Amino acid sequence: MNNTVQDVTVAIMAGGKSSRMGRNKSFVELGGKTMIEHVRDTVAPLSKNQIIITNEPDHYQALQLPMFSDLYPDHGPLAGIYTAVYQAPTQYTLIVATDMPWLNPNLLNHLIQLRNEADVIIPRWQKFPEPLHAVYSKSVLPAIKANLDQKKLKITQFFDQVSVRFIEREEIEQFDKNGRSFSNINTPEELEEAKRGKK
Prior knowledge:
The structure is a single chain. With 199 residues, the protein is of the alpha/beta class. The protein has one domain (5-195): Spore Coat Polysaccharide Biosynthesis Protein SpsA, Chain A. The chain is built from six helices and ten strands; from the N terminus they run βββαββαβαβββαβαα. The strands form two sheets. Strands 1, 4, 5, 6, 7, 8, 9 and 10 form an eight-stranded mixed sheet that branches. Strands 2-3 form a two-stranded antiparallel ribbon. A hairpin with a 2-residue loop joins β7 (120-125) and β8 (128-129). α2 runs antiparallel to α4 (141-149).
């Protein structure tokens, strides 16, 4: 894997209501570490710039990373993406979700290496884009802001206003054969499956 890059920030999205889990997913333990620790440790070699997007900063002090709350409160994940890209000190932001403990550093590095090819570099697995596992340029900010202002909160709605490079399944499989990177843990049942090695 290449050395850390200077013009990319990694933003860990630690928002969401965690309603199906019944408690904050970031701090659910799996294999001796919390889920956000798994994510933090995976992305650490990719960039010296890491930030957390959370509306509950008090909960994340121990991680000792810069934290930012949504600039558009109660506007869902799109607001989190906007906040991350806006607050990042770099031109590009790799966004990952706190509930994805099986992130693949080689796939993430591949996305980063393609950052100059489009405004959004995003995997598409089983026909669905993975917006919380993608690289965004600051050039997307006007389009996202316009959608937030109009309460158009579906993440992919702004894609037709910017340039997008989709990473399709065949390309993903060079790094992650079964798409495990995109698995997240939403419920106590999924957590138990993961602990038993079945997820």
